[in-house]
Every structure is written in C-alpha cells, then in structure tokens.
Amino acid sequence: MDGNLNAFTNPAIEAGLVHCRALLEFLGLCISGGRLGNIKKRRDSDVGIEAFQNAAGHLTMVAPDDVLSLYAGNREEAENAFACRFSLTNKSLAHFTKDLN
Description:
alpha+beta
C-alpha cells in the first residue's frame, strides 16, 4: 500500500474525541462558562449514569472535583484540558462553525 496512514488516523482520532465527549456526558460532566461542571438537565431521551443502580442504590453523576483531584498536576491545567476536549469536539467535529473560539 502506497501513501500514508492519514486516511485511517484522522478518522480514528476524531471518533475517539467524539466517544470521549459521549462518555463524559454519560457521566454527567459538561463545560459551563469555561468550567467543568455537571449537566443540570438532561433531555427526556438521554441516558446517563443516574439511570443505573447497584446494590447500594442509584448511581450519581460524577462530581467535577472528584475528576480534577485525580490529576497529579495543576487543577487549572486539568480543567483546561476538559474544556478543550469539549470545545474541540463540539465546534469542529459534532457540527461545523466558522471559528473554534
């Protein structure tokens, strides 16, 4: 096969980013005002973590503080990484916009 792997790597990276966003939203996380937070209201057709339960009862949305505390580095750096992930996925993959700001 001649050429390069861009025909595979680009769609694989894009699919990974969209899947990452879907998993974060399933866990109840979102970006609001540039900060990592919890989804306030889901659509009626959405399925989130709180729809499931274990022996202890219903599961709850993951708290942003719990997620950010897992990162050994600077909290702001971790929060910016989440904001970037949501913004990049929303503005360049999920739908097209004129600019990425």
